[in-house]
Here is the input.
Amino acid sequence: MAGARVLGSPVLEGDEVVASRWRRRWRGVRRRIQAAFLVGVVGVPLAFRAAGSTDYGGPVAGFAALVAAFTVAHLWAGARMWMRPVQVFDEGVIATRVARLVAPRDFARWTQIEDARVEPWGAYGERLVFTLRGGGALHTIPGELDAAAVAGVLGMARRGWEGGADGGAGDAHP
Here is the structure.
């Protein structure tokens, strides 16, 4: 890539063991979704047959709803399963952009981040969320950073906003 800036070594990385446990948990969720789909494939025709239906419209609609629900649920769980540990650099952060059904990793310079905060993520614990100026947010895996690391990352974000540590972009935090 011509003109791409090469980042140095990460100043901080998320805990790979926590990330592995996180992926394993969501892999289990995906397996249960797959099992439920298989049960539905058998259950839809049996349910219509037990109801005495001779029309093909009902089973076709049932299968269509089953496939749609399976696709959405499988992508939703997969997006969380593929999350990777956060990487913090002097210039910014690489984290996961959880966008409904997909979760690509993205790099954001400190000046592109509008807000950085710790927030709970249900029963999974607390995660660090970086709200981006142009919309969207980058997320860490809950529990991958300890309290000292979270405080350090939040401090780096504030210094980046105040000092314009953006690798030359020059815009300041609002």
User: Anything to note?
Assistant: Confidence is low (pLDDT under 50) at residues 165-174.
